[in-house]
Specification:
The chain has 148 residues and is of the alpha/beta class. The protein is built from 4 helices and 8 strands; from the N terminus they run E-E-E-E-H-E-E-H-E-H-E-H. The chain has a single domain, classed as 2-Layer Sandwich (Transcription Regulator spoIIAA). The strands form 2 sheets. Strands 1-2-3-5-7-8 form a 6-stranded mixed sheet, with helices on both faces. A two-stranded parallel sheet has the order 4-6. 31% of the residues are buried.
Length: 148
């Protein structure tokens, strides 16, 4: 459940997460085991994503290691900060039942403004993200260029 290191074109390490950009233009955000993600961590994440994407919208894949806690305040901040974060589409990888419940609750309760879905496998998530990129390119007059 991780990006192949040969496919990484850029990365940023933060205390509670790893942010990696792959050759397909997908940004992988992996929360470190045991992390508590609050507003400050979400702000660091936002700044790192803006830096790694150079402010251009990209598909995002969130991965969760064991025992990661995202506070209610962080979830609320995430939805409010969407306008300033270059998210084209967001996939949440939920490999266990607890993650599925938490992710689905987040989607129903907070209603993100960018296309967001929960997946059980990384392959399904990346396929969907790439299909969202194709839709964005075909429906947009904005220029969108994936790295490499």
């Amino acid at each position: 459940m991780a990006i192949d290191k040969d496919d990484v074109v850029d990365n940023i390490q933060l205390p509670n997460m790893s942010i990696e950009l792959d050759k397909q233009g997908i940004v992988y955000i992996t929360y470190v085991e045991g992390s508590i993600i609050d507003i400050e961590e979400k702000k660091e994440e936002r700044d790192a994503v803006i830096k790694i994407t150079k402010g251009v919208k990209h598909p995002i894949l969130f991965l969760f290691e064991s025992m990661v806690t995202i506070t209610r305040a962080a979830k609320e901040y995430s939805v409010k900060a969407e306008a300033e974060t270059p998210y084209l589409a967001v996939a949440l990888l939920a490999e266990n039942f607890a993650h599925v419940i938490s992710a689905n609750f987040y989607l129903r309760f907070y209603s993100p403004n960018v296309p967001t879905k929960v997946f059980k496998t990384e392959v399904q998530a990346t396929d969907w993200l790439l299909s969202e990129v194709a839709k964005f390119k075909s429906n947009s007059t904005n220029l969108y260029i994936l790295p490499l």
